[in-house]
Write a structure and sequence with these properties.
Helix content: over 70%
Number of domains: 1
Radius of gyration: 16 Å
Order of helices and strands: HHHHHHH
Largest sheet: none
Number of helices: 7
């Protein structure tokens, strides 16, 4: 059952990464590309431990770095996604308490992803032009993250609840 769960989570991440890198980049929305894979990782992080969420985030970011129209060097998205997934899983007790806080967290994660990618690229010495329209990309990533969180968060959490085995307890009298 565990391998089936890993396969379904991996398949969901691959589908979201492909949709983000093909369809969402071709739509031509202003500013940043809507962070579908990042919102998928965030919703999985809300149901996992911080270390498990960081592993899922790392592999999702690595997948985003490997898909061909990627503009970031290898490992930049992987590091940013792992850090953001770890923080999301660590703060899940605060995020899950409201109807508005998950949307605010998705908006914050969308904009923090851009800043973390920029920080990781600059700190590793990668020469890349990430600062073109930086403020506009941060704002639009926050808006797109909040808008994507509305359908993606419940769907992914329902799917994760569906594939997670229920623990049966025996009452001994």
């Amino acid at each position: 059952m565990k391998n089936f769960r890993f396969a379904l989570v991996g398949l969901g991440l691959v589908i979201s990464a492909v949709v983000e890198s093909t369809w969402l980049t071709l739509i031509g929305l202003p500013g940043a590309v809507p962070p579908l894979t990042l919102i998928w990782v965030m919703s999985l992080s809300l149901r996992r431990s911080p270390v498990n969420a960081a592993v899922v985030g790392f592999f999702a970011g690595l997948l985003m770095d490997l898909i061909p129209p990627s503009t970031t060097p290898m490992g930049v998205s992987a590091g940013a996604f792992a850090i953001l997934a770890f923080l999301t899983a660590g703060l899940k007790s605060y995020i899950e308490g409201s109807a508005i806080l998950p949307l605010a967290a998705a908006a914050g994660i969308g904009s923090l992803a851009i800043l973390l990618r920029l920080f990781i690229a600059v700190s590793t010495g990668v020469a890349q032009n990430l600062t073109d329209n930086l403020f506009g990309n941060i704002i639009t990533a926050a808006v797109y993250g909040a808008l994507l969180a509305v359908p993606v968060l419940p769907m992914v959490q329902w799917l994760d609840r569906f594939i997670t085995p229920r623990v049966t307890t025996t009452i001994v009298r």
